[in-house]
Write a structure and sequence with these properties.
The chain is built from two helices and 27 strands. It is mainly beta and 332 residues long.
């Protein structure tokens, strides 16, 4: 599981894989390690096509680190995957591929399913915790939002798993912390306790972020530099700039310092529509920056200039509107 190129050796030392996630531990060896960098990684299937996974790497100094890949519950692992790496050494760049064999028979049974089937109410909003699945690499908790809820639920605040001894199993510090199955279903991921087998396990949180379903649209009038529709006065348009090819929109968002001091809001989906009903998916970049003024966040996004008809409508996928209620659900 090693590749070597002009005195640089990249080695995959160990692999932990299950039906939810894969972690690869690697080392780098070279005479002049200080000028060698792992620039990018990609996981490929047996046909050398990219895996449908969120892949990232976390260096631990110059000589070692780990690569993580998170994939959906419907993805079926193959007997081998290929790790494509891109390394740089001063002005030189090279790529290579490492084959990673997987023991599918062993992986198949490496999970514990924990039925839960409990419902928590936040005012009139119902959230059901359906089950937990404990994998070697992480814990997946399946939740479902009642379709009859009057609000769209975006997420939870200060969510954690706690065992019977009070030890906290936090949400994922790397990789994917949550994924959506549908608008009313979510999988929440936590650090795994697979090899410890606690006698009790509880899902705890303090509130949800949610917004009335009739307040989910932000309508931007590019011509007159106005917000024609917004959920409330916590969001304001500060600037619109145009070039020959792009339009950049800047917004100011007031957040709640009690809950949002460590959260950067990614407000919008990648798709939006104009007044004629045409849908676009050409958001070139977006970003959020925090200020010290009343926990305000500055949100900027740039889209490709098109022959838009009238104002643009962006649907919110998160917002600092909190429905407060502490809750505790026994998962095991």
């Amino acid at each position: 599981r090693s590749v070597r190129h002009q005195g640089v050796t990249f080695t995959v030392k160990n692999v932990i894989a299950d039906n939810s996630r894969m972690i690869l531990f690697y080392t780098l060896d070279a005479d002049h390690l200080d000028v060698v960098n792992l620039e990018s990684v990609q996981l490929l299937d047996k046909n050398k096509d990219p895996l449908p996974a969120s892949v990232g790497f976390d260096p631990d100094g110059k000589h070692k680190g780990k690569i993580t890949a998170s994939y959906g519950p419907s993805y079926q692992l193959q007997s081998a995957v290929y790790l494509k790496i891109r390394l740089t050494e001063r002005s030189k760049t090279w790529t290579d591929t490492v084959k990673i064999p997987l023991d599918l028979a062993k992986i198949k049974d490496m999970k514990h399913v924990l039925p839960v089937n409990q419902t928590v109410h936040f005012g009139q909003q119902a959230v059901s915790v359906e089950k937990g699945i404990v994998y070697p690499t992480r814990i997946a908790v399946y939740v479902k939002f009642d379709p009859e809820n009057s609000k769209r639920i975006f997420g939870f605040d200060q969510l954690q798993l706690v065992d019977g001894k009070g030890q906290v199993w936090s949400s994922m510090r790397d990789g994917v912390s949550a994924s959506g199955i549908s608008p009313t279903e979510r999988i929440l991921y936590f650090e795994s306790n697979y090899f410890r087998e606690p006698k009790a396990l509880f899902l705890e949180g303090h509130n949800i972020r949610a917004l009335d379903k009739d307040k989910l649209d932000l309508v931007v009038d590019l011509k007159h530099h106005q917000l024609l529709q917004k959920p409330d006065d916590r969001i304001a348009l500060t600037d619109i700039t145009e070039t020959q090819k792009t339009i950049t929109v800047k917004l100011a968002l007031e957040t709640d310092p009690s809950w949002d001091s460590h959260r950067s809001y990614n407000l919008f989906r990648s798709t939006y529509r104009d007044a004629a009903g045409r849908t676009y998916e050409n958001m070139l970049r977006s970003g959020t920056a925090s200020t010290d003024e009343n926990a305000k966040q500055l949100i900027t996004f740039t889209i490709k200039k098109e022959p838009f008809q009238g104002p643009l409508t962006f649907q919110l996928m998160d917002y600092p509107n909190h429905v407060e209620k502490a809750f505790r659900v026994r998962v095991k």
